[in-house]
Design brief:
about 675 residues
Length: about 675
């Protein structure tokens, strides 16, 4: 037994219709945000409402049973959480994974199944953080398990909070609630301050990490700890406190009438304060509860909220892969399916397991066994041959990456990259031994740039096989080519490797390149020319401790390349700047025609959309290398007449929205060889 007990709470049902109203509001906000992200652009804040409610409800359940033997108490808590969370989650994961294998191209399965596996063990938020996936990146709209990130935060909270609560209770006297309040309020404040700091330093971490999110769950916990008897909240002070919270929320909104999801914002604090105030208002307030009964549709959605939350994103993602969600008919059909599947999940999975008579220890054993079983099912589905289950033409998706034994293939391979640097990599002295294939007799190509230079490696490899030329293929992620430190905005990460890479590669060219060699750089490895209005904006590019404006950064890049180009001209080395390739709104894999996939207008863009970018690059080349610089336009090879397409002439040309596939890159080789034959005499 615990060393002391708390007053018994009256034995009656603890159901709160007003809390289901809040759940209904939260889940509808999230669903509408994911269906209409441009219109309902703050609907993602429904998750913050869920966090407060979860902290409140879970803490109430814990406090009611604190007088039990601590072993019984902790085992019962985790058994209840398993019954509440895992059956519906695993049902969603298995059925969605089967649908994914049937309807989503085999080339796009890796990140989807990694997220699914992480969700099974409650760490999908950590997996997404580790992969540096920004929640607001449009690419994540094609992963049907992204919504499980918030479950990960809650499950990690459930692992820590009950143990801390038990320790505070065990080592306290009859005033344990006061001590618990001070203890958890302190943790909540630290969590809030950490969240604010991460908003400045690492916005992606502030979104996914559990610790900076705990203040929201603890807000609900603090309400529950101080509610005492459900009919006497805060000794009669609940209504007064709820008014204070509502007034504070109004003040926050007046202080910041507009907000940005990328910076520190008070909107989350506002949502937490309003949710807390409404929970307080409904605690022991029969009129508030009676009023909530008038909101039957919201109560109904609140009861369905967990299944709705799980299924809405999975269904919307499958629609995005195989249909146009901008069409009203598809929107209505998706909403119908979301509610239909959620009702079935609620009735036949969630409720049956939640209120099952399975003992606590058997429930825990069942949870562990189920997790292992679901992981094995996911592994079996993932490793099935594409032709065994995919309903479409799997052969259309096979030439996205080079085979493992292709020359310098590891520069492109997503899982085995050696010649493409990322944020936490370093420049090893021997790296060029693995990332170059230099010819002493014929010309060589030196590729310099980011991933939009990298995707020309298969083209250059094909050219090399035909002409006997050599090449290097060391590239870097997310950098523009200038000798400066750059900030990755999504991560607020100072990326010194950008400066190191540019200086390293220009030094490699100076040391190794010879007469008649070429330096290749993709257009989007160059900073865009800022307009007059943009020139004074900060660029996120640093020289020493000074952050340059966009105008200063562009001038800095011109100086770097002018100096470099002049050195190369004196040695008979030419620069080839490769013009822009089309950018699409959806992944190329979605554009492969299939009998079950509707044609999507987003699979093609007008060629003229590249005109302004091409003109800017042409001006840049004329400034920095007027005598030994050339501009080649791959759009002349990729685009037919006025249109550019992701899938053309039976080939998938793009592996995602902006990067060429293996087939797309190799298809440019013939046109590039013709271009070389025109410029080689001049280059010499």
């Amino acid at each position: 037994m615990m060393p002391h007990s708390i007053p018994a709470v009256e034995s009656r049902t603890y159901y709160r219709a007003d809390i289901d109203v809040l759940r209904g509001i939260a889940v509808i906000s999230v669903v509408l945000y994911h269906l209409f992200p441009q219109t309902i652009n703050s609907g993602f804040l429904g998750v913050d409402i869920f966090f407060v409610i979860s902290g409140y409800v879970v803490t109430q359940a814990l406090v009611r049973n604190l007088s039990l033997n601590w072993r019984v108490w902790i085992v019962e808590f985790y058994a209840r959480r398993i019954k509440r969370i895992l059956p519906a989650l695993y049902f969603n994961v298995i059925l969605t994974a089967i649908a994914v294998r049937l309807l989503i191209p085999p080339s796009d399965l890796s990140s989807i199944f990694k997220t699914a596996g992480a969700a099974v063990v409650g760490v999908s938020n950590i997996a997404l953080l580790y992969a540096r996936f920004d929640y607001f990146n449009p690419e994540l709209a094609y992963n049907p398990f992204i919504q499980t990130w918030s479950l990960g935060v809650e499950e990690q909270f459930y692992l820590v909070f009950p143990l801390l609560l038990m320790l505070v209770y065990f080592f306290s006297n009859s005033h344990w609630i006061r001590r618990a309040t001070i203890f958890f309020a302190s943790i909540s404040l630290l969590s809030l301050l950490y969240w604010v700091w991460l908003q400045y330093t690492a916005p992606v971490a502030s979104f996914y990490s559990p610790l900076p999110r705990f203040w929201e769950l603890l807000s609900g916990s603090l309400l529950a700890l101080n509610s005492g008897s459900d009919s006497r909240p805060f000794d009669g002070k609940g209504w007064r406190l709820s008014r204070v919270l509502l007034a504070s929320a109004l003040l926050f909104m007046l202080m910041q009438p507009s907000f940005s999801i990328s910076g520190v914002t008070l909107i989350n604090v506002t949502v937490v304060a309003v949710t807390s105030a409404l929970i307080l208002f409904g605690t022991g307030n029969s009129r508030a509860r009676y009023f909530s009964l008038l909101l039957a549709p919201l109560i109904w959605c609140g009861r369905l909220s967990y299944s709705l939350y799980l299924w809405h994103y999975s269904i919307l993602t499958l629609f995005r892969w195989n249909g146009d969600l901008n069409k009203p008919s598809n929107q209505l059909l998706s909403i119908f399916l979301i509610f239909a599947v959620s009702i079935l999940s609620y009735r036949f999975v969630e409720i049956r397991f939640r209120y099952s008579s399975l003992s606590n220890w058997k429930t825990i054993f069942f949870g562990g066994f189920s997790a292992i079983s679901v992981l094995l099912i996911l592994a079996a589905l993932y490793f099935l041959p594409p032709s065994a289950i995919y309903l479409g033409r799997s052969e259309s998706h096979t030439k996205l990456w080079p085979p493992a034994d292709a020359p310098l293939a590891k520069s492109l391979s997503g899982s085995q990259r050696e010649c493409h640097l990322e944020y936490l990599d370093s420049l090893r002295p021997d790296i060029m031994d693995r990332c170059s294939s230099i010819s002493k007799e014929s010309s060589n190509f030196y590729l310099i740039g980011n991933s939009l230079t990298q995707h020309y490696v298969p083209m250059i490899d094909a050219v090399s096989r035909q002409l006997g030329t050599g090449y290097t293929a060391l590239t870097i992620s997310s950098c523009r080519m200038t000798s400066a430190v750059q900030t990755i905005q999504a991560l607020n990460f100072k990326y010194d490797l950008c400066r190191q890479y540019f200086e390293f590669m220009t030094d490699v060219v100076r040391r190794s390149a010879k007469f008649n060699d070429f330096v290749l750089i993709g257009s989007r490895s160059i900073l865009p020319q800022p307009s007059k209005q943009q020139a004074s904006e900060l660029s996120g590019i640093f020289v020493g401790a000074k952050e340059l404006t966009r105008g200063e950064a562009y001038e800095k890049m011109i100086q770097d390349w002018t100096s470099f180009a002049n050195e190369l001209r004196q040695r008979g080395i030419s620069l080839i700047f490769i013009g822009p390739t089309p950018a699409f709104l959806i992944p190329g894999s979605k554009c492969v025609p299939e009998w079950f996939r509707a044609d999507d207008a987003q699979c093609r863009v007008l060629k003229e959309t590249l005109l302004e970018e091409t003109t800017d690059l042409q001006n840049f080349v004329s400034l920095v290398a007027p005598r030994n610089g050339y501009l080649w336009l791959p759009s002349n090879e990729l685009c037919m007449a006025d249109w550019c397409k992701s899938f053309a002439e039976g080939k998938l040309l793009f592996r995602d929205q902006i990067h060429l596939s293996l087939a797309g890159s190799e298809s440019l080789a013939a046109g590039f060889i013709r271009f070389l034959r025109d410029v080689r005499p001049q280059g010499g």
